[in-house]
Amino acid sequence: MVAHDRGDLAGRDHPSLVEALDAFTRAPLDQVEIDVDVKLAGREEEIVAAVREQGLSDRVMFSGMELESLRALAQLAPEMRRGWTLPKVSGDWRRSTLAKPFLRAAMANLRARLPRVVASRAAELGVWSVWVFHPLVSPRLVESAHASGLAVFAWTVDDVERQRELVALGVDGLVSNDPRTFRESIGVAAA
């Protein structure tokens, strides 16, 4: 699931969460693991209800940047996996002309600190995985996360060479806007 701004959706029909999840109850999607990326806090009860209504509790993982949501989901559905998405961002800050001069240093700083942050906070949050913006994924991060028992997913990586690099680093999964690239990068077809 992806959040879009209202302008992107104007004039389009879009399914409810229950309708979207229903597609995963039948072939060819009935064997697919599902990540429900919770973008806004406050809707956790209805999200959990929709997943349970479709009988998908064993195939769904919730992920999100909002710690409040992750804690609420842990209370409502302790049996379902949760993933912490890092870093917390709003909008595409990489395109900001004001941010560009500081971006390289900020990214390097965050990349250096992230392995410690993940190791110290993940247990407190009770998450199963971390979902990390792909330029921030490093060998130290993957090693630290795996040593803490966490799966590592890299988002959003559309470049085939970068996908190969991340797989070589040992990430457990990739997020892409174009899953067809997986055929070339890792030799699997998109569903």
What does this structure look like?
By secondary structure, this protein is an alpha/beta fold. The chain has helices at about 5-10, 15-20, 45-55, 65-75, 100-125, 140-145, 160-170, 180-185, and strands at about 35, 60-65, 80-85, 130-135, 150-155, 175. The protein has two domains: about 1-85; about 85-190, Phosphatidylinositol (PI) phosphodiesterase (TIM Barrel, Alpha-Beta Barrel), CATH 3.20.20. The chain is built from eight helices and six strands; from the N terminus they run ααβαβαβαβαβαβα. The protein has a six-stranded parallel beta sheet with strand order 1-2-3-4-5-6. The longest helix is centred in the middle third of the chain and has 26 residues, at about 100-125. The protein starts with 5 loop residues before the first helix and ends in a 6-residue tail after the last helix.
Supply the key terms.
191 residues; alpha/beta; TIM Barrel; 2 domains; 8 helices; 6 strands
List the uncertain runs.
none
Shape by Cα distribution = globular
Number of separate strands: 6
Q: State Rg.
A: 17 Å
Distance between the termini: 15 Å
Structural class: alpha/beta
CATH homologous superfamily designation of the largest domain:
Phosphatidylinositol (PI) phosphodiesterase
Q: Mind summarizing the main beta sheet?
A: 6 strands, parallel
Q: Which CATH class of the largest domain is shown?
A: Alpha Beta
CATH domain topology of the largest domain: TIM Barrel
* H and E string: HHEHEHEHEHEHEH
How much β-strand is present in the residues? 5-15%
Biggest sheet, spatial arrangement of strands? 1-2-3-4-5-6
Judging by the overall fold, what is the CATH architecture of the largest domain?
Answer: Alpha-Beta Barrel
Task: Give helix % range.
Answer: 40-55%
Output mean pLDDT: 90
Q: Any idea how many domains?
A: 2
Q: So how many helices?
A: 8
